[in-house]
Amino acid sequence: MATPDFIRTLRASVGHDLLWLPGVSAVVLDDEGRVLLNRRSDNGKWSLIGGIPEPGEQPAACAVREIHEETGVRAVVERLIVVQALHPVRYDNGDICQYMDISLRCRSVGGEARVNDDESLDVGWFAVDALPDLNEFALLRIKHALSDAPTWFDSATSS
Length: 159
Description:
Strand content: 35-45%
Distance between the termini: 34 Å
Radius of gyration: 16 Å
Oligomer: single chain
Number of helices: 3
Structural class: alpha+beta
């Protein structure tokens, strides 16, 4: 995935140390109830659309921007579905990041699903009962996007 310029600037000061960052992921649905996914170029795995907001960018605006940048699909945000602090991630270059993920259910309103940048190898719409292999992160978000349940969050407290 492309590293935003503001993170490159931070890395010049902090090196590979842990960065706590916001992240936005989008469960994009079409009128047929299919889910939009991309196969990431960094690991070859199918994934939800997502990214890191620019400084000052609202999560919903980030989701809409990332959806269009990565897939060519235009979307609107319908609701917040999951808020979750994720485990730290160590990238191949040694950088460590930990994300506070804000997941949003979005609705496609136009555009043609296609590979629209270098972050994806493939893009496609998938019926919920015919999803490719996905990790628990994506499956939890799809489950909550398809339900009318309130926003999911982990209410456990640490001591």
